[in-house]
Amino acid sequence: MEEKLKIKISIADRVYPLTVEPNLEEGLRTASKKIDTMIKQYEENYAVRDKQDVLAMCALQFASAQENRKIQSTEEYEDALLRLKKINEKIDFVLNKNI
């Protein structure tokens, strides 16, 4: 078992010390960079008075993207399932025709 790492992640000019599994470090660092980039975009494009408002919008944007991926994934699954059912019906038809 690998030893956990103690790292520091910076988000919105604040440093957060974390203890994480080594395989999670890269993802956390990438995520914090994406959050900081998004914060800068909000601050440049909107009149934002409070960092908490910007962080709330970032959280909403990330959560929305995740939910949209789930919805799309579900739709793709349902579409694939429907296609498989149609293929299965055709196979059953051919097999029953040869009996």
UniProtKB/TrEMBL annotation:
GO terms for biological process, alphabetical: cell division
Pfam family, one: ZapA
Species name: Paenimyroides tangerinum
Keywords: Cell cycle, Cell division
Origin organism lineage: Bacteria, Pseudomonadati, Bacteroidota, Flavobacteriia, Flavobacteriales
InterPro entries, sorted: Cell_div_ZapA-like, Cell_div_ZapA-like_sf
UniProt-recorded name of the protein: Cell division protein ZapA
Keyword Cell cycle applies: yes
